[in-house]
Amino acid sequence: xxxxxxxxxxxxxxxxxxxxxxxxxxxxxQGIKTTFVNTEENHKRVMxxxxxxxxxxxxxxxVSIPDGMESLEVRDHLEKHAESVxxxxxxxxxxLIDQINAxxxxxxxxxxxxxxxxxxxxxxxxxxxxxRASFCAYAAIQSVLxxxxxxxxxxxxxxxxxxxxKKQMFQLSPTSPPMNTxxxxxxxxxxxKVQKMLFENMVRNKRLEALTEWLLCNSTYxxxxxxxxxxxxxxxxxxxxxxxxxxxxxxxxxPEDITCLKWLDQQPPxxxxxxxxxxxxxxxxxxxxELATGLELSNRPFLWVVRPDFTDEISYAYLxxxxxxxxxxxxxxxWAPQQKVLAHSSVACxxxxxxxxxxxxxxxxxxxxLCWPYFSDQFHNETYICKVWKVGLGFTRDxxxxxxxxxxxxxxxxxxxNEEYKARALSLKELVMHSIKEGGGSYKNxxxxxxxxxx
Length: 455
What we know:
The chain is α/β, with parallel strands linked by helices. The protein has 17 helices and 15 strands. The chain has helices at residues 14-29, 40-50, 77-101, 118-126, 140-147, 149-154, 192-208, 225-230, 259-265, 285-298, 313-325, 338-342, 356-364, 377-388, 405-416, 419-434, 441-454; strands spanning 5-9, 33-39, 61-65, 110-114, 131-136, 169-170, 179-180, 214-217, 234-236, 272-276, 302-305, 330-333, 347-352, 369-371, 392-394. The strands form three sheets. The chain has a seven-stranded parallel beta sheet with strand order 3-2-1-4-5-8-9, sandwiched between helices. A six-stranded parallel beta sheet has the order 12-11-10-13-14-15, with helices on both faces. The longest helix has 25 residues, at 77-101. It is globular and about 65 Å long. It comes from Melia azedarach. This is UDP-glycosyltransferase.
């Protein structure tokens, strides 16, 4: 056959676009033509992020499709987003495939789509595209959770509509880490209508998994042996990080402030607290002030990422005075080159929302965590970090459901004064990074995947 052509379709949020872009760079490096699909809004962000770069990402064919957000007449933003990705986007992807395949050459030979997008596999099958693969941008345990929905219904853990019968801890298997029914990915996200749409999509995805020949995951066997053993179709190919190839992260949706790297150069080794909560977490003034006070009381240097939309105007006014008080040992930026920050020798720990990308980046650099999950799978990732890998600690909320400054200082001291956390983090790093080296599990899985695409 001719040169393979892979159509890559990520879920349109930064936490999914980033690992999909890293996977696409790996495909291009193997000489595979790769077309990367973004919504129009994200396409502009990606193009802006790539404008100053001159690496292998320039060889990826970037295309955009409308997301339909403006034309959808629903009030709730999350409802509009769900309608977009599960109803509007499939139609536009189908049109794009027809447009590309109308040419005599460079027809699409493989669709590689987000595991959330079962509809992409259905479209590919209908279009006669024989090679179809899914990619989990999150932990493998989340894929296993989806596969266990009917079992959870049968066991009385959830109702047929996905509603937990009660708030409880349970295990998918006798050896899997405990989960809380309150933290399912479809629970507590927007209105009940949105939650129903998310759950129904998961059920549909499970049915459409039969159309997927490969199920890749941004993880390693060493991180999730139980989950990966529970579903032998899952093939870990992670960690997919730009830093593994000594490069820059290709697609951050916000401009990176690289001044923090020079500031880190001036700090003692293993001294800096790095604080970042991803692209969606939002703090009210009370929680924002408690975090600031905890950092101030720690008497340790810290680098804090405060996005423009991270909190309210009152908190930003407070932040100015706070910066003046802590100027000798603090650096605050609106966005940071996170992989380079976590690889820096001066970083001692990571206060994180525990998104899977951040989790993989911290683990790959041997950094201990203080876990501050915000929603959904982030709570399951916290369980991995604290209970399974034992490379971090979680926070306890007070009667107001706030993580107060005393708790923050206490956990910082507990983590950083105990060398065992760092030692375990470094041991875990060694295992994880071995997986992507020649002979490692992720290396072999990816090599087999490439051979399948080219066959």
